[in-house]
Design a protein that fits this description.
Blueprint: H1 2-16, H2 32-67, H3 74-97, E1 106-109, H4 116-142, H5 150-172, E2 175-177, H6 181-222, H7 233-240, H8 247-280, H9 304-327, H10 334-364, H11 375-404, H12 410-437, H13 445-462, H14 469-477, H15 479-486, H16 489-513, H17 518-521, H18 524-529, H19 531-562
Antiparallel strand pairs: 1-2
């Protein structure tokens, strides 16, 4: 066929532009392709070892800061991370100005990588992280008498790093670089390691902030009516370096606390995009990997999903505001916890039933599975499964603590039901999303041609006369109902379920991201496992849970679009 002839004709031209990888260990390989494959594996191995050593070094610094604040201070950790940020900045600038501009550097681009929603997340969380650093600089400047100057330099370097990295990921996340393979892999792995360390530091700092805040509440209850001199030593240090009674300082403080969770999400999203770029270094994409038609998001053919999802978002927002107002008091009432967990107990079964129905519909369909190599989809599956372990792990810890104490209590029984339902919801949603991501989007050739012919006819009819403008507007107003009625029932149900789950995951992402952490306040698990142990469990599980909800939104949107 003509398509096959054109493909074979273009193959030699593309092959002549390929820069095959070389590595000194495999210079004696007889086959050029074998030498290329071995060199690629060796490059991935050495760059991975580089990232592993950097992560271990940074983790040792952060752990030493937590357990021995005299020898290793937070300022020392900031200096190490600033050095890593500067090295990453130099490499990113070199990639932008040097590597990517070389001849035949980017012959292929991965159409599955760098989806618009994930690049939009990079920009959104990046802007929030920039504001966070601005508030940090302003807050540290006001308290310069008790703050180190490193607290001003570190966020300043952070702003430059975030801006440069966001620009790099927005424009080059789809690149399959074909030159300077090993140097590019090492640069990408160094940037991944730096983002992982920034995430680990952010989680650790959040742990310390929440711990100090909770302990301060206990101190205020315990030492009520006593002089400040009778407070513990750590509490005196906290009180000496507090915000003065000025509006601007309160704004910086509240803004910093509000935007803090977005920094952890920004680091995780950047790591996922950078990992896909690392896998795509030296990758050569064949013609059958390139999609002929790219699906687009259209809010058509759905009615009940948006209605139910909007209701869940509105009710969840009301519950969130009630919780935030009550939780800011020194003694949150049991009623607010009952309302919070009751909302989850109603919503989670609905989400689970929707995911199970969607999985059954996938099984009834005759669409074939897409078995082609796709690093982006493989990473999506790994991230969904890995991030879900955060909520699942916390739920199992809660179940053990509640069953071993008093499961008959009203609040404890609600938390127990919430934990069990959360495990089931995570599993069913993962099965539904992963199954949907592996389904091929098949359009029959005859139907595709008919659609193109109909579009051409409709376009020519619209140009006939301006007098028909009113009739065309009337037809457009009825298009939503027309498309909804002509979708098959399987397609319709899948789109309804996907859209409903998208909105539900958004509200379940917003609530913990903006500070709704009942696991810190109910006191049940904390009293069972001990203060320090429970905070370690929660602050590693909670950010993963927030990231899971955000990543699920992207996967569900893709399932919705392909449906």
């Amino acid at each position: 066929c003509h398509h096959c002839k054109s493909r074979s004709a273009s193959a030699p031209a593309d092959t002549s532009k390929i820069h095959y990888e070389k590595f000194w260990l495999y210079r004696h390989c007889s086959s050029l392709q074998q030498r290329d494959r071995q060199a690629q594996k060796a490059g991935q191995l050495f760059s991975g070892l580089l990232a592993m050593n950097v992560v271990f070094l940074g983790s040792a610094f952060i752990s030493s800061m937590i357990f021995n604040q005299v020898a290793i201070t937070l300022g020392d950790v900031w200096i190490l991370l600033s050095i890593l940020k500067v090295l990453c900045l130099f490499w990113i600038i070199y990639y932008l100005l040097g590597t990517s501009r070389q001849p035949h550097a980017v012959l292929y681009r991965d159409s599955h990588a760098g989806a618009i929603w994930i690049r939009g997340s990079v920009l959104l969380f990046g802007m929030c992280s920039i504001l966070l650093n601005v508030f940090h600089i302003g807050y540290s400047t006001i308290l310069i008498h008790c703050k180190s100057r490193v607290e001003i330099v570190f966020p300043s370097i952070g702003i430059l790093f975030i801006c440069t990295q966001a620009y790099f990921l927005w424009h080059h996340s789809k690149d399959c670089i074909q030159v300077q393979h090993n140097f590019t892999r090492c640069g990408l792995m160094l940037t991944i390691a730096t983002n992982l360390l920034l995430w680990l530091l952010a989680v650790t700092n959040d742990t310390l902030h929440v711990e100090i805040e909770s302990q301060l509440r206990e101190v205020e209850r315990r030492f009520a009516g006593k002089a400040p001199s009778s407070y513990p030593h750590w509490c005196n240090e906290t009180i000496l370096c507090t915000c003065p009674n000025t509006t601007i300082c309160k704004v910086f403080q509240k803004g910093y606390i509000l935007l803090y969770p977005f920094n952890t999400e920004y680091c995780l999203v950047c790591c996922s995009v950078l990992y896909v770029m690392w896998k795509n270094v030296g990758r050569r994409i064949s013609h059958h990997h390139i999609p002929h038609t790219k699906p687009k998001f259209k809010l058509q053919g759905v009615v009940f999903g948006p209605l139910l999802g909007t209701a869940a978002v509105v009710i969840g927002a009301c519950v969130f505001m009630i919780y935030q107002i009550q939780a800011t008091s020194l003694a949150p009432s049991r009623q607010v916890f009952v309302i919070y967990y009751s909302y989850y107990i109603v919503l989670l079964p609905l989400m689970s039933v929707g995911a199970v129905i969607g999985t059954i519909i996938h099984a009834l369909e005759k669409k074939e599975l897409d078995t082609l190599k796709n690093p982006t989809r493989s990473l999506d599956v790994v991230l969904l499964m890995g991030a879900a372990l955060g909520q699942i792990g916390m739920s199992y810890f809660s179940i053990v603590a509640l069953v071993a104490t008093d499961p008959r209590d009203l609040l404890n029984s609600l938390i127990l039901s919430y934990s069990i339902l959360l495990i089931f919801q995570n599993i069913t949603q993962n099965v539904f999303v992963i199954d949907g991501l592996h389904r091929q989007r098949v359009i029959p050739p005859g139907k595709e041609e008919d659609t193109k012919e109909q579009n051409r006819e409709a376009y020519s009819q619209r140009r006939v006369s301006v007098l028909e403008l009113g009739q065309e507007i009337r037809k457009a107003s009825l298009s939503y109902i027309h498309i909804y009625s002509h979708l098959s029932w399987k397609r319709r149900v899948l789109r309804e379920i996907s859209f409903f789950l998208v909105l539900c995951n958004i509200i379940l992402w917003v609530m913990p991201a903006f500070g709704a952490h009942p696991v810190f306040e109910n006191g049940m698990e904390r009293s069972f496992y001990g203060y320090s142990t429970w905070f370690v469990i929660v602050n590693f599980g909670l950010p993963l849970g927030v990231f899971y909800r955000m990543h699920s939104v992207g996967g569900l949107l893709e399932v919705y679009v392909t449906a």
